Structures are given as structure tokens and as C-alpha cells.
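Q: Start with the shorter request: fold the first protein.
A: Done. Sequence, then structure:
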Amino acid sequence: MMSPPQRRIAHLDMDAFYASVELLRYPELRGLPVVIGGRTEHEPVIQADGSKHFYRLREYAGRGVITTATYEARAAGIFSGMGVMKAAQLAPDAILLPVDFDIYRHYSRLFKAAVAGIAPQIEDSGIDEIYIDLSDLPDDALTLAKRIKQAVKDDTGLSCSIGITPNKLLSKICSDLEKPDGLTILGMSGIPERIWPLSVRKINGIGPKATQKLASLGITTIAELAQADLSLLQTHFGRSYSVWLHEASHGIDQRPVITDAEPKSISRETTFERDLHPRQDRLVLSKAFTALCTQVAEDLKHKGYVGRTISIKLRFEDFHTVTRDFTLAAHTADPVLIRRAAGECLRRVPLKKKLRLLGVKVSALVSIRSARGIEVSPQRELPLVP
């Protein structure tokens, strides 16, 4: 009886994806610190002589956060999730560009299609990353990785980094080891040399709080975690998470590459540049609310889903967060019905404080392909302002 082939799992991560897409549009910015996180008013301005004026971080005012940055900006200490104002203190002359999710989604579809032409067993893990099961393909890992990287480059003009190991956990770590345009192939025997010296935060699933607690126990590297007594971990983290920590530190991960995962929900949210008053800023809030419902409806249509449960999320000026949901009689992707249901949710929230964030989510999804026999509401057009 033949034993199954050893698993070869790849993790592909696009390099500084949003920023790299912007550099395709603005190649004159290559080699410069560029930050993605501005608003529409930060679009480059065409001058009378045909040249472009790019906004600088020092010109930004507001409380937006960095979506991503080029490696030159990262060298100045800027990272995703950092406040734009804080980033301006580190690199005031860095170029600031607005976020353009439509073009990022376009390039996301392009790179995933390029990979699928070579290795179709793909788990979609986000707009800029995927897992790929290479186990059943005839070529060796290095040949496959080079083919995939070249296909992505040919179809998008962008570079990616790939890690190939026996499992998803190790591959995600390895795809980050030699960025940008990196390629790391690692077997289990290479864990002590390449993985153990790294910080425990390199393990996907160990967040800031767990990192801090591990540090209080004198555990900062993956090697120290691998050598830690399991009973000590259980005392501080509980049995289930401690067992996972122990296995992860030894590179053990049996999770399969899931190629047919269905989304549980589709959502959109926006953080306002200033806190908005429920009455004084009613028109602005109403337009934003309607726009979110329209965007969610468009996302549902694009991805081929309808949903029944409509939810809203409100975050107030004191960071208190409230959610409400409403379940419709029939599945829908109709922006009018989504807006109406979201409005019903909103009526159940006391609006006595200013708002800093607003979100809309549709869940209880069913793909349109499998919606036969399920009641689906017809779609109508939603006016911009209700």
C-alpha cells in the first residue's frame, strides 16, 4: 500500500500589495516612502505643465490609519494600522495616497487567476494572500514556486513572496522571511535553525496580549516556547490554547487547505474623520449609512450571494460599541431592503452620543447558484439619500 505524498503547502503573500498597485499607476514614486491611507481629496493633482502634485504626510489632518506602506516608508518605522498623524511625525515628507479598494480587488482577482492556472487547489485567505496545496503536482517545490511567481509577475506586474513547507502555519511564517520577492522552502528538520530564533509573534494566532503574557514568563522566542513546560503554559493560558502553543512552536499543524470555503458574512464599515452628532450631522450620517448599504449590496452581487440577517455596528465617541440585527423574511441582495432593515436596527439604538464608526453587515448567506427553492427578494435601485 502506497503512503500518501508528503504535504507541500505554499503560502503566497503579495508584497506591500496596495502600495505596489499604486506604484504601477505612479511609477515615478518607486524608491520613495509612500503611504496608503488618505482620503479622496488626496488624489494626485495634475499641474498645468502636466506634472503631478502628490500630497505629503505633513499635509494630513484627521484620525485615519495607515492601510499599508512601501518598504521605504516601513524603514522609517511606519506600519499598517498606525495613525496617519503619528506616521507624519516619523516621515513628514512621505507621499500620501488615498485608498482605492476597487483597483486592489481587480489585481487580487488577477493574481489569484494566475496562480490557479498552475496550481488550482487554492484557499483564499484575503485580498493579498492565499494558501496553495502543491502536494499532488508533479514538479518539485522550487520549480512550482518559480513558475507561480513568474505567472503573477507576468499577469499583474507585481511581485510576491512564497513559503513552502509541510503545513499552513509554517508556510505563513516562511513567506515573510525573505520579503520582498522572497522564496523560502523549509522542511520539518529546518525548524530549529530558521523558525525557533524568531519572536513568538511570528506565529499566526499569537497576538499582542498573548505575546505580553509569554514575555512575563520569560518566553520571547519560538525556541523558548518550544522548551516551555506544558503545565506552566496551562496554568496561564488554559489547556486548549496551551496545547496549541506547544504544537505550533514545534511546527505541527494539520489544517487542510480549504478550497470551497463559503463566506459567513459580507460587511462594510467606515470610520469618520470627526465624531458626528446624530442630529446636527444627520444628513452626513444618512448619506454614509445609505452608501454602506449600497456597497454591501454590490459586494453581494459581485460575489454571488444573498443574505437574510442585516446587522449594524455603531462605535461612539467613547469607543463603546453597539450592534443590532434584523432578520428578513426572504434572502436578498436588494440595497433598498438592506437599507430598510438596517434602519430598523438603528431605531433600536439610543443615539445620545456622537458617532465615530458606522458599519453594515449581511449574514445568513446563500449562494445564488444554490438559492433555487429559496425565496429571494427582487432587487431595486436605492437612491443616494433616503
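Q: Next, the second protein, separately.
A: Sequence, then structure:
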Amino acid sequence: MTPKRVTYSQRSNHAARAAHARGARQFKTYDTSYIRPKQSKGPIIAVVVVAIVLLIALIFGLSSCFGGNKNLLQEGESVKVEIPEGSSTQAIADILYDAGVINSKNEFTDTVSTKNAASSLKPGIYTFEGGVTCEEVVNSLVAGPGLGENSLSIPEGYTIESMGEAVQKAYAGSITKEDFISAARNASSFAEEFPFVASAHNNTLEGFLFPKTYEVIQGYTAKDVIRQMLSQYQQEVATLDYSYPESLGYSSYDVLILASIVEKESVADTRSKVAAVFYNRLTNDGDPAYGMLGSDATTAYEIGGEPDNYDWNTDSPYNTRKTKGLPPTPICSPSLDCLQAVCSPEQNLSDYYFFSFWPDSNGKMQYYFDKTYEDHQATIQAHS
């Protein structure tokens, strides 16, 4: 939650109010008009002019705030936009607004902040159509430059469910969401061609479907699209060094599970640190972790929403506040960065067991790492 910032006293200063009131009454008791110098009309005219200018500025300002982007693309229109290398979130917002892609710069930057996507926005040339939402625009920028109209963008952190929706949209309904989900929950049917999915728990391909922008090929079935994604996963993980997690007894599937949790619990510059904290919790059988991962993201995955009112005494393999070890499956498709972070976590956090994150005044998420529960609570208290 955003910390409260109080810029004035919340208590009324009764003494000051009383003195001010007395002064006002005393002033009204006497007729002082005869000792006041006559005022020139010049300042009055100047004040009126300034007031008119301010009123005009206010009208235009309100029009700008509430009237939206007058150049906003309409349904059926499209535009090509180039995002230069090294562009900041605000610079990208300016480009998209000027091109008529988005209706509000603030909504765009807020969406980027909410999705912790600032460091994941990729440069390149994009084609946007009228009617896209800010979330869809951010997802496209995270996925990277597409392949024109014939593209399927799968951002990092997508689940099989959300992929099904993206596939159905990209294939204009020739592959339905239900077709895709059904095929993705039958991992055994792909095991002969892709032996690494044989380790998939519950026969689901959750986590294996690599996030990327894919070409939409007419005539493809749901299984064909999944083969594209599995081939990409196979290619990407071939670059990983599993020696560290293997030294702790974790398999490549365990790495995939933990990477999916890191994907949901971190931002770009904290991946390896969050991975280190999770390793510390998993490998500690005593106080303070007792071998429990303690990630709310796993429960959110299971129940399909934020666990605000969840009973943490519930017996579930995805309730990692109560159940030791990793959950049985990945909770999303992680990026290569998260997979690398789990294979090579930060080595200077060997005795850290807690982390928390809070948005700063610019909306950017800031992470705090603590060794003890007491320090962790103090950090929470300082930002609540």
C-alpha cells in the first residue's frame, strides 16, 4: 500500500483560531477606511487580467484532462509506432499518446507500474489498432515487436488460461480458448516429441509454454501452437546452467516452478535477490522459515484471485505458508531472466529470509530485504 504523507497538522490549532477570530472582531469594531490610502485602479485591472488568463488556462487544462486524446485512433484504424532504444516509460507514453494509440498518458504509466513492467518494455517498430486498451499495449511492448498483423504475443507471467484468450484472439476464433486449454492440460500427448515435459505434474504444461511473440500460421491447431511454444522453451533453457539448484537437490522442473513464483514476486532488478530469499526459506528447517516458501502468489494462482480473505490454515499444496517445499506445478510461464535468477541467485543474502515491496512517490516498486522477522515487521510498519 502507498504510505500516507501528511503535510500539515491533523489537529486543529484552537489557540491560533481564537486569536485570529479576536483580531477579526477587533478590526471590524473600528472604521479605518479614512486612514487607508486610495488604491490605484491599475492593480485591480492587473488582477482581473491575471484571473482571466488563469481561468482560460484552467478551462484548457480541464479539457485536456477530461476530454481525452483528440487524435485517438478509431476502430478500424491502425498506426505504426517506433519505440527508440533506451526510452523511459514517460517517453514511451508521449510517443503513444501523440500517435493516438492511448487516450491517457497517466493510465499508461500507471498500468506499467501496476504490472512492474518498466524494465521489460522493448524497443522496436509496432503496429497498433484503434480500440486497444492500455493493458494490451503494455503486453505488446513487454512481448516485443510483433510480426505485423500475423502475430501472437505471450508476455511473461501468463498462465494457460490467459494464453488461451490470447490465442483465440490472435487466431480470430479458429482456435478457441477451450481448445488451447484442453491441449495444454494434456502434457503426456507431447512427451514423445518433447521428453522434458514428462516431468510435468498433474499432466499440465503450465510453465513450459515460453513467453514470446509467435507467428500466426493459418491452418494451425491448438497443438501446433503449443509445439511452437515448447520448441522455444527447449531452445531457451539450453543456455541455462543448472549446477547450483542441482547441488541442492532440485530438478529442472523444480527450477521452472520456483522461477514462475519469482516471476510473480519480483521486478527486473530484484530477480536474483528474491530467488535467494526463497532458497533460504526452502533449505531452512528451523526458525524462521521451517522449510516453507511463504509465497501468497501460489495461493492466488490456485484460487484465481488475490487471497485477501483466505484461511491460511487451509491444507493445500499451494498454500506455501503452511505446506513445506514447492507447490506441485509452476504458477505461470516465467521469463528467461527468472529462470537464470533461480539458477544463479544472489550470493550475498545467505541469511535473509524476508522481503517486502512498496511503491515510491513515482509509483516504482521498491524492495526491502530483512534478516529477521522483527526487522521485517519494522519495515512494514515504516511503510504502512
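Q: Describe the second briefly.
A: The beta strands are 78-83, 124-129, 151-153, 213-215, 354-359, 365-370. The longest helix spans residues 41-67.
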